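In this section we walk through a basic example: taking a raw amino acid sequence and producing a predicted 3D structure, encoded as discrete structure tokens. The instruction is simple. Fold the sequence below.
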Amino acid sequence: MKKILFVASECVPFVKTGGLADVVGALPKSFDKKDYDVRVMLPNYRAIAPKYRENAKCIYYFQMDNRVYVGVHQLELDGITYYFIDNEQYFGGMVPYYDLYQDLERFAYFSKACLSALPLIGFRPDIIHCHDWQSALVPVYLNTVFQGDEFFRGIRTIMTIHNLRFQGTWDVGHIKWVSKLPDECFVPGRLVSPFQDTSIPQNSWNCSMMRGALTYCDYITTVSNTYAQEIQTPAFGDGLDDILAWRRERLWGIINGIDYDIWNPSKDDKLVANYNTKTLKKGRAANKIALQKELGLKEDENVFTIGLVSRLTDQKGLDLIDNIMDRLCNMNINIVVLGTGARNYEDMFRYYEGKYYNKVRAKICYSDALAHKIYAGCDALLVPSAFEPCGLTQLISLRYGTIPIVHEVGGLKDTVKPYNEYDGTGTGFSFRNYFSGELLDRINAAYNLYTNNRKEWENMQKRGMKEDWSWTNSSKIYMDLYNRM
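The resulting token sequence is shown next.
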């Protein structure tokens, strides 16, 4: 039996700020328990709901480096064993993340504590599967500080990049201080770029925890095939394209999936009417009217309704939407926005709601229940991201029969098939160049198809709903990777 340990900073249902939590929560459940013992290790945030924190048992506690407390709590849930690294100083706040300066120290501690705990809790994984920069020092510690211990020799590591934009980057002096890693880790080509100007003082060199993980891990994965190719170029590599291109034979692109038990329009208890491909028209009409009623919009099932469920950041293509919002609102259209993020984008959508109150609703908050209703009640979903490693919203929209309108990058390109009016194929609308005019053109194409050929629109909805974007296929690729190691 293969023993796999997932190490991550968030996981559904305990704590979530983005798609990382969905992946770490769903992927371990997709493996056959007869062949794979997959466990998950997380920080024991105070923000975790009491019903989980209070049921997790403290199975061990110790001092790391003879001075720093580490507690290990354990919880069994839905057949998966979860370990929580406990330390009030680092994880006692009511939010999972602080500012980057503090988070570098918190997650350096977390990475080292995860490894330190393993011999004490009686679990020796064959593979440690790390997720994003918050666990990036695990492969570095494992292949340096911990190699003197026989217990750790032979353990392999995978680093999964969910978003390369976030790397855990600061100067060498600070990262050396928070990590206590040996000097050998901070030479150019390891945690430091091989192109570093060595004429300046070493403590001022730019240092990346993610670069360290990519250097020391055995395999690298990211969350779509196209993104795996894109990040080997300067345009998408965020300063790490050199190491990714150098290690391309160990770099796999594996598309994310979604949990089909949670995202299932035929059983979703957050909807006023459940539906499938046979009851699509009636079910979605009922959900659309219910959404309009809840948001205070005019109740009319024929109004073309566009949804946006997203973090409100530069990555998500919101500047393109800003450029065309006035023109969109001159159409017979409703626009529903759900999300939080950068203040300028939050205020932008508040402004448009005020300007076009009969057509626009901006819910600047996190609401899982409303997200489900938007997927079931909107006709189309906007995902015009400047870059998108995978994206989950377009997968959910396909599952719910909501037509995605996307920029052809990363996982969006891999999962949304462009509509072809001549042969009646495709599952959505996509544009190639990051330009607001192209986005407007694709929205107009969707609007015209919805208005003038509802039958073809429904056929496209059904094609998307019939596709399988569960973890079934992707987990098989992960199993292949695990078995190769």
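Looking at the output, two observations stand out. The chain has 18 helices and 17 strands. The radius of gyration is 23 Å. In the next section we compare this with other chains.
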